[in-house]
Specification:
An 8-stranded mixed β-sheet has the order 4-11-10-9-8-5-6-7, sandwiched between helices. It has a 4-stranded antiparallel β-sheet with strand order 12-13-16-15, with helices on one face. Helix content is about 40%, strand content about 15%. By secondary structure, the protein is an alpha/beta fold. The protein folds into 3 domains: about 80 residues, Winged helix-like DNA-binding domain superfamily/Winged helix DNA-binding domain (Arc Repressor Mutant, subunit A, Orthogonal Bundle), CATH 1.10.10.10; about 130 residues, Aspartate Aminotransferase, domain 1; about 240 residues, Aspartate Aminotransferase, domain 2 (3-Layer(aba) Sandwich). Helix 10 links the parallel strand 8 and strand 9. Helix 2 crosses helix 3, helix 6 packs across helix 12 and helix 14 crosses helix 15. The protein is globular and about 85 Å long. The structure holds pyridoxal-5'-phosphate. Pyridoxal-5'-phosphate binds next to helix 7. Pyridoxal-5'-phosphate (PLP) binds next to helix 7.
Amino acid sequence: MRTWDLALPVDRDDAAPVVAQLAQAISSHIAAGRLRPGERLPGSRDLSRIVRVHRNTVVAAYAELAAEGWVDTSPSRGTFVSREIPAALRSRAAARGAHAVRAPGYPIEPGPAPRARLPRSPGALVLGGGVPDLRLVPIAALARAYRRALRRPAILDYGEPAGEERLRAAIGAMLGSTRGLDPDPARLLVTRGSQLALTLAARALVRPGDVVAVEALGYRSAWEAFRAAGARLVPVPVDESGLRVDALEALTRREKIRALHLTPHHQYPTTATLPAGRRLALLRLAAAERIAIVEDDYDGDFHYDGRPVLPLASNDPAGVVIYVGTFSKVLAPALRVGYVHAPAEVVSRLAEHRRYVDGQGDRVMELALAELLEDGEVQQHVWRMRRAYAARRDALAAELRETFGDALRFEVPAGGMALWCLTAPDVDVDRWAAAACERGVVFEPGSEFAFDGAPRAALRVGFARLAEQELREGVRRMAAALPAALAGARSGRPASRPTARPRRT
Ligand SMILES: Cc1ncc(COP(=O)(O)O)c(C=O)c1O
């Protein structure tokens, strides 16, 4: 295998002999771990060409390194990094500063709070609400389209920060048909997932100290995008119908609200659909107060019962809605393709910001996706997934009911990828989630979505990612983990509410 040329600085004006300099540079690479035990070093002819010294100089440097124990040389096979470097040599090299510096020599600002993730065992069943079944992604069609896109050398050039025109047109057609939005590509910006869309919207909307209202419970990644732009976040409560618009209205009497992040189709995490009355009230309020509504429609394609509700953006004469969508749920999160639909002036402003955030998207992927949309491949996949996910939703709901009875209360949602379940107050849901992880099943405790991070008697259980029999096994493991989370499990007293016990384990 051809390897990289080593950086081996040799300074002929230095007082130290060139042989010693070369030996010192190679031993530094070995001591720092950049050259690994047993690794073959370049032949003397090659190295003399790389370093531009006489071949005899290299031979002499290798001989010095061999004498010290850094390398082993064999006339027929070549020169190799020694497998056993004497400890004394290592520490001498370390003292000379040959090891990489690991701590920064300057202050860095605190970042967003790190996400606490429970450790997952390799075979764990993930009942997470955020990821589709990756085994069903039309990979062969995607690979073919990607290869075709890659065959055009021009696609490897710099591109427009708003995204490939063909993809914008295809997404425009999709949103025109399915969401009732204006299909004009000038109103569309392609991003790397919703996350970049939220980041750009935050940059365009927020001046440091501006107030941004967010749903609580809600989506932490959106909160952090607005926080990073200097926003002061104010939580607005949600109930079983989604955002409490009356609470937002009360807030506007005390604070000037710049923007609102909202998931009206399937509220994240509770799955509630914002009813028509609240939608109208919200649009009116936003128009009167000049509030930008960032409408995050992350899983709008997955609606199973009745007609899907059109987004706020489809009924927005005042131009207050910035609509954000993604292919992370429709296809796969790793594609990193999302989009913003907004007035053309807003799209241009976001594109200007985007130029200095990551320049442009993945042009090859964008072109490939455009082809899959034009050919109807994505539409067909959505149809297939809708059927599969509706059956999975029903299977999970039946299994949870059968297993936990009244101990878990939930409504079967008309769409989305997860069930939102309430527990009896004597269940420590965070403990349950941790115990479940140990038993090889992952679900999301309510605290993950809480603005204050405090425990909630609620959990989100996803159904899209796993097949029906896997879901059933997941519920069985959840039930087995539950006793560890009941009040009394720690004190040895019986649980105060027998209803919190699983019916069967
Ligand atoms: C509320 C919400 N918005 C957006 C996304 C998608 O994010 P992205 O498109 O960056 O993958 C998710 C994924 O979990 C989500 O839950």
